[in-house]
Amino acid sequence: MADEDTRHESPSQTAGPYVHIGCLPNWSGIAGVYAEDPGSRLINADTRGERVSVTGRIFDGDGAPVLDAVIEIWQADAAGLYPSPVETRGTADPNFGGWARIATAFDSGEFRLDTIRPGRVPYPDGRLQAPHINCWIVARGINVGLQTRVYFADEADANVEDPVLAAIEPRARADTLLARPDGEGSFRFDIHLQGEHETVFFDI
Amino acid sequence: MSSDQPSGYLPRDRAWHPPALAPDYKSSRLRSPRKPLLILPTTLSEESGPVFGHDVIGPRDDDLIHNHAADGYSALGPRILVHGQLRDQSGRAVPNALIEVWQANAAGRYRHPNETYIAPLDPNFGGCGRCLTDADGYYRFLSIQPAPYPWPNGPNSWRPAHIHFSLFGEAFAQRLITQMYFEGDPLIPLCPIVNAIPREDAIDTLIARLDMDAALPMDMLAWRFDLTLRGRAQTYFENRPEGL
User: Fold this and answer.
1) What does pTM read for this prediction?
2) Cβ distance of A86 and B44 shorter than 8 Å
3) How far is residue A127's CA from residue A129's CA, in Å, rounded to a whole number?
4) Cβ neighbours of A14 in B, within 8 Å
5) Strand partners, B210
6) Is B29 a catalytic residue?
7) Which pLDDT does position B1 carry in this prediction?
8) What are the structural domains of chain A?
9) Has residue B244 been placed in a domain?
10) CB of B123 within 8 Å of any CB in chain A?
């Protein structure tokens, strides 16, 4: 690859404290511009798969919850297929959007994702990845959107085989990516931006 | 590997982007991961991404002058047209890409529950808009010139006038949020968010140029702002075809 043929990506800047105006206007009180907020059609009554919810908070280096973050998720359907033109292994569930956008609550910092448990997706070498939800986190104070993944603690066999989890050193840090069962169909996933339990973030 | 096989996305140049911790931008101090990012090649999970059709875009979504205004009214402030081309790192136009924008009003005030600045809201300005790039990667939207505003960072910190941009490409790996600044704004070099970007030539790519050729006479000025998303790693050809 010749360097002179490769341009620079536009540099990232923080989404800032008012990211909701552009990303979730109805949620932030701006009614009547968009019929609905983008990323609100992840699942519907006909979506195939096991319903799961993931709730959690994002904590800063002082252990305070982040009250102004936006999280985007992108995940495969229950069969492990992405609703995307680059998916060549089959056609994803037409009742599954794959993409969602949620905010942490202004008062508690709690976020909640209602989705289905994703199927397994192959790694480039053909090995299967464990079920996972890709996350992208933006907020005031975050200069480049943070990439991480949610895995499911009750998928122990699949998690052991997962090439991405296997790349985490020390291995104990992989536990920061595990959503923990927290009642019927619900999981808990807290994100730590700094500190002893800092979540694994990817450059991927 | 055949030439139509996706071969992953180029890694982000982390020396070109701002670092996670930029101490002069105070909010980054407690919100910056301190452990190194785990560098991995993209997988199908990152090489795929959501697709947005014209059905999700309303007729006035790209007109911030009117999309929150009462019938017969328009937002206060200098009318502007912002346009440009979205390409990837190999120079390829990115068509059908969703671009979302948000900004303060002409007094420097955001319409947001957490906003505390004393400047007034404009009842006819919401501050959000969106559009899709065309087949050649071009986009345009209409708005009003946002004003600079003070913010609680240092004792006397002011943001240069700016418009926030959220960009989707074809892959979740390309997801990007950035800010557009206006050529000639003396606050640009004073801003710790801008200066979190280590290189002057990188900052320069976020400064829109006055574009008199695209201005609408007796109506609005135009600003040109081109954007670049992460590109695919190029497939290596052992036998390079003639002409490539």
Assistant:
1) 0.96
2) yes
3) 7
4) 25, 27-28, 177, 179, 193
5) B223
6) no
7) 38
8) 12-192 (2.60.130.10)
9) no
10) no
